[in-house]
Amino acid sequence: MSLTRHEIREKAFQALFALNANPDADEDQLFQQLLNPDDNAEIEIPSYLSTLVTGVLEHQAELDAQIQPYLSQAWSLDRLAKTDLIILRLAFFELTYVDDVPDKVAINEAIELTKAFSDERSRKFVSGVLGKTVGRESI
């Protein structure tokens, strides 16, 4: 099974969302369920999936500290929808720690994740936050 990076980002989002709800879940077992829900045979986990999920979890405090200044004063990380926060963490992780992903790609992929897992308000919000990170008001 060969996944595109876009599909891997979707699986990473799903894994991070599940781990947010159940931090004690077994990551490898979760990956297997996401990648191969109908078959009991284990499949190889794409390394980029592990990179994203492990990286976001390990750098979560730093990522949250990077995100916070881009929120209006009325908003805190606790008030954000979990989907928006996880998508922003993924985007900031790629922007900060993944050298072979251009900033424009990381931002576009985050917006695509909002289209798949959230709504139009979230898409505009995530786009606005990420647009500020690259010096524009919105993407």
UniProtKB/TrEMBL annotation:
Q: Which GO terms describe its cellular component?
A: cytosol
Q: Does the keyword RNA-binding apply?
A: yes
Pfam families (UniProt xref) = NusB
> Mind listing the UniProt keywords for this protein, alphabetically?
RNA-binding, Transcription, Transcription antitermination, Transcription regulation
What InterPro entries does the database record attribute to this sequence? NusB-like_sf (IPR035926), NusB_fam (IPR011605), NusB_RsmB_TIM44 (IPR006027)
Superkingdom of the source? Bacteria
SUPFAM superfamilies in UniProt:
NusB-like (SSF48013)
Write out the GO MF terms.
Answer: RNA binding
Q: Please, one GO biological process term?
A: DNA-templated transcription termination
Family from the record:
Belongs to the NusB family.
Query: What's this chain's function?
Result: Involved in transcription antitermination. Required for transcription of ribosomal RNA (rRNA) genes. Binds specifically to the boxA antiterminator sequence of the ribosomal RNA (rrn) operons.
Instruction: List, alphabetically, the HAMAP family matched.
Output: NusB
Protein name per Swiss-Prot or TrEMBL: Transcription antitermination protein NusB
Species the sequence originates in: Lactiplantibacillus mudanjiangensis
Q: Which gene encodes it?
A: nusB
